[in-house]
Amino acid sequence: MFEDLVRCTRVLSIVGDILKVRAGNVGLGDLAVVENWDGERSLAQVIKLERDEVSLQVFAGGRGMSTDATVRFFRHSLKVTYSANILGRVFRGSGEPLDNGPTLSAERKIDIGGPALNPTMRLLPKRMIETKIPMIDVFNCLVESQKLPIFSIAGEPYNQLLARIGSQADADIIIFGRMGLIFDDYYFFRTQFEEEGIFSRVVMFVNQASDPIVERLLIPDLALKVAERFAVDEAKRVLVLLTDMTAYADALKEIGITLERVPANHGYVGDLYSQLAQRYERACDYKSAGSVTILAVTTMPGNDVAHPVPDNTGYITEGQFYLHNGTIDPFGSLSRLKQQVIGKVTCEDHAQIMNTMIRFYSAAKQAEQKKAMAFELSEFDHNAATFGKLFLDRFMNLEVSMTLNDALDLCWITLAECFEPQELLMRQDLIEKYYPKQSTAHTM
Question: Which fold has domain 80-244+271-340?
Answer without folding.
Answer: Rossmann fold (3.40.50)
